[in-house]
Design brief:
Length: 238
């Protein structure tokens, strides 16, 4: 039995609240159960120096957790003067995942930054950030299209979403919350497009190494879960 009482293939309640931020070109408050992440998309009419005059744009991401996103207050990384390794790894993953479905040439020499700020954490913050970040990115591109800056269907090639899966109490399960994630025997994150192509898989045996059969079971769970997430994304942007 999972601590939440969910079935092994049952995700938490997922929701997207668009236009959450007044000032951002695109924004979305995404909730995976008790994990809440505010994703905002900001447009700049310039590219990083290394892309200047290339005819290509860029999509990047930044990620952070508010001090009381967890059970105990964490110090702000700005106060420490540097980002932690976990933060850097997650924001690079978010950026890679979103760029996988963007035509950078069709975007033009512009940069879109997706800021993912974790308001409340209960496991799966990176997967929620990617899934909600896509909605914020879509709305930013829609904002640009309304101003004749881009054609949405040329820039945005597909959906992208992410979900965690793992082995908890010997059972393969989907969408781990904190209680499961902290005790999982295997922990994995899957990022896939709406068409089912794989963007990235992160998988680690926290205890006993997992078998190929167990991995394939996690893969099947992830593919079904991401299919549900993409359906929810489509409903959200109607």
């Amino acid at each position: 039995m999972r601590p939440s009482g969910r079935k092994t293939d049952q995700m938490r309640k997922i929701s997207f609240e668009r236009n959450f931020s007044k000032h951002a070109e695109g924004s979305c408050l995404v909730k995976f159960g008790d994990t809440h992440v505010l994703c905002t998309a900001s447009l700049e009419d310039k590219t990083p120096p290394w892309l200047r005059n290339s005819g290509k744009g860029w999509v990047t991401a930044e990620y952070g957790m508010l001090p009381r996103a967890t059970g105990e207050r964490m110090k702000r990384e700005a106060a420490a003067g540097k980002q932690g390794g976990r933060t850097q790894e997650i924001q690079r993953l978010i950026g890679r995942s979103l760029r996988a479905v963007i035509d950078l040439e069709a975007l033009g020499e512009r940069q879109i930054t997706i800021d993912c700020d974790v308001i409340q954490a209960d496991g799966g913050t990176r997967t929620a950030s990617i899934t909600g970040g896509w909605v914020a990115l879509h709305d930013c591109l829609k904002w640009m299209e309304a101003r004749n800056m881009v054609k949405l269907d040329r820039v945005l090639k597909d959906h992208v979403a992410a979900i965690s899966c793992g082995v908890f109490a010997t059972q393969p399960v989907i969408d781990l919350d904190y209680l499961e994630d902290s005790a999982a025997e295997t922990d994995a994150n899957f990022v896939m497009t709406g068409s089912g192509a794989i963007v990235e898989i992160q998988g680690t045996a926290e205890g006993t190494p997992f078998t190929e059969d167990e991995f394939l079971t996690l893969m099947r769970l992830a593919r079904a879960g991401i299919g549900e997430l993409v359906t929810l994304q489509k409903q959200a942007i109607l």
